[in-house]
Amino acid sequence: MPQRGKSVTAGFSTVTPSRPTILGKGQMQAGQGSPSSTRRPSSGSLNSIHRSRSKSENFSSATLGMAGSPQPPGGSASPRRQPSNVEQEGAAAALASQAPRARRPSLQSVDSASSTPNPSVDGHDEDTYFVLHRLTEEKEATAEAAAELAGQPPSVKEAKDETKKTWFSPSSYLQASFQAVKESMMGEGGQKEDEAETDWEFWGKVMNDYETIVRKHPRTFTRKIHLGIPDSLRGMVWQLICKGKDPDLENQYATLLQRTSIHEKVIQRDLARTFPKHERFQEPGGPGQESLFNIIKSYSLYDTEIGYCQGIAFVVGALLLNMPDEEAFCVLVRLMRNYNLRDLYTPQMIGLQLRLYQFDELLMEQFPLVAKHLDSQEVKSNMYASQWFMTMFAYRFPLSAVFRIMDVIFAEGVDSMLRFALALIKRNADAIVLLEFEQLLEFLKNGLFEVYAENVNALILDAAAVKVTKSRLDKLAADHAEIVKLAGPEHMELEALRAEARRMNETIRRMELEYEILNREHVTLANSYLEQTVRADNSTALAGQLRARVTELEACEASFEEAAYAKAADDVSRLANKNLELTTRCAELAEENDALREDVRSTKERCAAVENDRAELERKWEGLKKVLG
Hints:
Blueprint: H1 85-97, H2 107-110, H3 126-150, H4 154-166, H5 170-186, H6 200-208, H7 210-216, H8 218-227, H9 234-242, H10 247-256, H11 264-271, H12 279-282, H13 287-302, H14 310-320, H15 325-338, H16 350-366, H17 368-376, H18 386-391, H19 399-412, H20 416-427, H21 429-432, H22 437-446, H23 456-465, H24 470-628
Helix pairs in contact: 1-23, 5-6, 5-9, 6-7, 7-8, 8-19, 10-15, 11-13, 13-14, 13-15, 14-15, 16-17, 16-20, 16-24, 20-23
């Protein structure tokens, strides 16, 4: 569980140097080191340095030419020619091939036109209008904040003035952070390979004087944003664009951390659903989930009308992957206030209803066949597009695409979300019109990005090619406001309830599907359990039979053993008697043998005596024969 009430050191976490030298205009050139009086800062934005650089800047600037082509000099520019399919396909192919970057042009050569956009048929340069308009909105928001501060009690103003005395200006911190990141990436022995395509000169000038760069070179800035902010600089650039670096807000965040919110249980429950596959947010109660909890809880205390809405968690998660906690909180506040993101999460969700109304109207205007098919299938935009606008596309899209989308949103405003939504529909139109309700809704929720899975640059290109003018959006907003006015607050509340009912019905439908799946799994498991039970019973019966057979065999073995022992004893006794008889007979035979031997000896002696007598008689006979002869 996240540590609630964990204290956070108040102040800027972006850098912790001694007072840095404020960089003058034009001072931050590529390869130039930080001022000698400045220690290397420990940037909070350094946390956003990714070792695997995105290839977002690897395609040629020519592929986004429609976002940065200069207008003909002098007079009013003719209406911009709508790019043909061949041109778009060629540009997309160039994006996909990731061609090496051509020699980087200077700002002056790219933006040779006036800093004020040339009027087109719609009264402005469509490619740069949103960037410049966002800058104007930011200045107005800053002026409103200053006026609000002027109306505060003297004690509040004195406290803010005291804070300013103890802090460096936000811009100086961001500049020092940029210099630290640059030195870290350049390192010893030259620029690192993963940052080889980073235009340090351009981004250094942006960090040094953002407003001037945007006003003087809007096309270059727009093109760079579409190419993607470098990963190592993304958090800093976001803060720079939205003026998110605010010591007062960081102090307030540290105070809010010590308090308890009534939404804590709901927030805690939803933490595991926010980027569940991302390693930083996977561990329950880990550092990532703790940071999510702290920021969301603090914002629920900061803006009690909004409190907590689940979509906020995905926006916070994307911010946390690019900056520290306290900076993410400040940027979240800026998005809510200055970008009117807050209207998406109010109880009536008036901002979400407006976005969905604008999306529906633009969809009907630009892709009528798709709109009619969706209508025929009774698929409403709030069934699938709500999650796009409420999470900045972070609910289902990969983070590599979400960060690129957020680059454009920060620079051009939340209106750009409509262009991304329409680009997704346009690229998938052929597939959409072939699907029925269930498959269609599933595809709209989870399958639209598949065509861009290997080429996020193509999504940015397609969104830039969608023609949605500010005047048209303003007209649709006015129409929606008139509808709301005519309908009255009761109708708005009813629409909010209907939207909530549709979401609840969708949730119920999803839960019914999940229940059906679980029920099928339960039946399968129950059948498996019954089979296993029958097998177990059969095994038990077989085991009983085997045990009885074993007992029987053991009894037989015992009887056989006794019989064998008895037979062996009889055999031994019989053999012993036989052996005794044989022994006795052997003794008798031995005696007979001895007697025979004695007889033989005596016989031999008699034979010898007879032989001697014969020999003597023969001798005598011979003598007698001689006497007689």
